[in-house]
Recover the amino acids of this structure.
């Protein structure tokens, strides 16, 4: 029995292409760093969030990144051991641990932002401002749809 020509009839879906772009972007970010922890997307995410929410708790980081608590804990441990973050126990609530970027962490975050901007420029080359705005609106809707689905699953 002859096999169908799968390449001829294959048409990727929008989510498939978005996922592929994400993986390619992540791979480019890994290739353009000399800092081993920057090869881990969870560490990059935590640095980015901490640059905007310094002093937040580990639970805040879990919520902001949508990473699992053990992933955040392990990544923070690595970042702390490398001198990029410091953790402090809340004096009023000993269960709460606040996380801060060190100067070394701020420097790494600045370098990461520069790499992100460089890779963003490559990614958006040849795409007009109007196309970028439309794409942003569509992708935001897609993200919001997924967040709603995840939220409704949590309620069950």
């Amino acid at each position: 029995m002859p096999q169908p020509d799968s390449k001829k009839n294959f048409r990727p879906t929008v989510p498939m292409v978005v996922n592929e772009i994400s993986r390619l972007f992540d791979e480019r970010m890994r290739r353009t760093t000399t800092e081993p922890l920057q090869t881990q997307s969870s560490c990059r995410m935590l640095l980015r969030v901490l640059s905007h929410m310094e002093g937040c708790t580990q639970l805040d980081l879990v919520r902001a990144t949508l990473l699992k608590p053990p992933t955040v804990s392990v990544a923070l441990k690595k970042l702390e051991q490398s001198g990029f973050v410091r953790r402090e126990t809340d004096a009023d609530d000993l269960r709460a641990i606040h996380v801060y970027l060190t100067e070394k962490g701020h420097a790494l975050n600045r370098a990461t932002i520069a790499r992100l901007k460089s890779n963003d420029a490559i990614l958006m080359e040849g795409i007009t401002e109007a196309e970028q705005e439309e794409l942003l609106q569509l992708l935001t809707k897609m993200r919001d749809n997924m967040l709603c689905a995840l939220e409704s699953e949590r309620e069950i």
Summary: The chain is about 65% helix and 5% strand.
